Every structure is written in structure tokens, then in C-alpha cells.
Amino acid sequence: MTRLLARWPLALLVLAPLGACATTESDPNKIPDPVKATDGGGAAPGAVSDTQVVVDVVADVVADVVADVGADVGADAARAEEVKLHSGRASEPGAEECQPVRTPELVTRVGGDMEAQIEIRGGRFRFGPSQIESPLPAGYPEPTPPGAIDIKRYPAVRRAEFVSSGSASMGMNMGFFPLFNHIKDNDIAMTSPVEMDYRDMFEPGTGKQSPKSTMSWTMSFLYRTKDLAPTGRDGNVVITDRPEITVVSIGMNGPYGTGVVERGLRQLNAWLAENPEWEVAGDPRAFHYNGPYIANRVKWSEVQIPVEKKD
Predict the structure, then answer these.
(1) How far apart (Å, rounded) are the C-alpha atoms in residues 175 and 235?
(2) Annotation: CATH topology of 104-309
(3) What distance in Å separates the CA atoms of residue 32 and residue 161, rounded to the nearest whole number?
(4) Residue 179 reports pLDDT greater than 70
(5) What's the whole-model pTM score?
(6) Is the pLDDT assigned to residue 124 strictly greater than 90?
(7) Would you state the pLDDT for residue 96?
(8) Average pLDDT over residues 260-279
(9) Distance between CA atoms of residues 15 and 38, nearest Å
(10) Which of 66, 76, 100, 281 is deepest in the core (most CB within 10 A)?
(11) Buried b vs exposed e over 61-94: b needs ≥16 C-beta within 10 Å?
């Protein structure tokens, strides 16, 4: 993909001479001749025009781009298939038998779509066309359906973390595969969700993306139980325990990235403004419930803000 992006400036450069051909004229008799517009006059018989040179160069660039896209898509497809095959299929004891359970004692509906209800069918959490294909960590609350707002209480959890800075959307692959390789190499089953924690990335109270240079993010894969591996370091991956936490959460549909987080935070901040008995107690985070092989339109996620009740 880097090679692909590097070629676009060249494509734009060679397309520049064709700007003389641009027109808003609707009368075909008044549209300028593209050859005369770029050649500056007639050409000798049999000569190759500047326009043809441009067309040939553009064709070469496009062919290279298409080849690169094909290679990248093929590599991404192979990785997605590898993730799909590993989801819940490691030899980790009990991974195959782990079944979803309802957790009404950990979830309180407080806003949004008050009637939205998830269901458990075929061993999976489901809501409309969306479903969660991997088990949640032991003791985790059930997912919040898209459009609903819940107060949720999460237990402590062991997780593998990858920390970075800059664009979280651009860096998601950079974090995902070191984490995936960690659980695969240690024969640990894939769980849902993949967690994203954001520091200084969104402005408090508005949810707008921040211009701060100090912004950073943490991507985490969650262990189903704490006894799967000890805390410590595995290359760029850190295994640590996250303490219990209370959040206000909204369920979302759509492609994963900071855009959906910004939309979710806007709605959560509006809810917090209407419910002043709750106050923000930490940085926002997002839950990504689906793997890269799931269509964007049905991907299930949550956007969350840690909260605590005022005394």
C-alpha cells in the first residue's frame, strides 16, 4: 500500500497537462480539441503527440497501482482468513465451550433506543444483521445494541497491549497483527472485543478530534481468563491487568475508526450533559467486536467513557 500511495503524486503530475482539456461547455462544437490544447498546434504526420505520451504514462502508472492493489488485497485477504480461522479455535482449554450469557446485573439501560434488545442465537450475541463471532472475556457484560446507551460495570481483565501515537485509524493494522501473533504463538483463543483506549485524542465535553501532539492510543486483546499467561512483555506487546471500571456506553454500527468514535462521543457527551449526577472518570475507549473479514456495514462496536457517580 505504501508503494501505491507513493505513485499517486506521479499520476497527478502527468495528468496536469490535461487540465487544458477541462471544460464546462455543453455544446460539442465548442469543446476544444484535446490534441491541439496540449500540443500547442498541429503535429507532424506520424509523430507521437504530447497527449499520447501522457496517456501512455498514466496507463503505466494505473497498471502499477492496480498490481499493487491486487497484491495488497491478496495479502489482506490471507491475513483476514488467518484471523477468522483462529477466532475461538485455539487449543486453549474451554475456548470452544465458552457460550455467551446475558448479564442484566452488570448493565443498566439509561438512554438512546430504550427498546433495543440483543439476543443469543446459535451460540452468538446478535442484533439485527450484526453478530459477535468470538467469546467475551469471563465475567464481561453483554454487548450494548447499536443506538442504545447503557451504564456498564466491567470486572478486572488481563490483556495484551500495543501502545502507539499518531493516527489511530491509520495505525490499527500496526497494532492488530503484533497482538494477533502474540495470542496465536501462545495458543490463546481470540476474544471479543478488541479494545482501543485514546489519550488526548478527543476533546473533553465535545468528542471532537484533538490537534494535540501528545495524543496516543492503546490497542488491546483480552484474555478470556487471567490464568492463560503471566503479566510481562512479549516484544512490543505488554501483558497487564486492567482494573474494574464503570462506563457509559453507546452501541454503534459501521466501519471501525476515529470517525465512529467521534460520533459516539458526541452522543455520550450530550447524555452526560443531561445527567449531571455522573462525571467523567477517564479517557474514552472503543470496543471492536468483529474481525476484519466482517462487512463494514454490519460491524458492531461500542464507544465508552469511564464514569463515576458524584457524591
Answers:
(1) 12
(2) Multidrug-efflux Transporter 1 Regulator Bmrr; Chain A (3.20.80)
(3) 60
(4) yes
(5) 0.71
(6) yes
(7) 55
(8) 97
(9) 11
(10) 100
(11) beeebeebeeeeeeeeeebeeebbebbbebebee
Q: Taking the CA of residue 145 as centre, how many other CA atoms within 13 Å lie in the half-sphere pointing to its CB? A: 20
The full set of domain ranges for the chain reads 2-86, 104-309
Q: What is the pLDDT of residues 200-227, one digit of tens each?
A: 888 887 777 776 666 789 999 999 999 9
Cβ burial, residue 106 (10 Å; 0-12/13-18/19+): middle
DSSP designation for 31: S
Beta-ladder partners of 125:
120, 132
State the chain's mean pLDDT as an integer. Answer: 78
Rounded CA separation 111/152 (Å): 13
Distance (Å, whole) CA 290 – CA 127: 13
Confidence class for position 167, pLDDT limits 50, 70, 90: low
Collapse the DSSP code of 119 into the 3-class scheme (helix H, G, I; strand E, B; otherwise coil) and give the result: strand
**DSSP label at residue 17:** G
Does residue 11 sit in helix, strand or coil?
A: helix
Mean pLDDT confidence for 268-284: 97
Single-letter residue type at 285:
R
Nearest C-alpha neighbor of 223 from the set 97, 137, 309, 282: 137
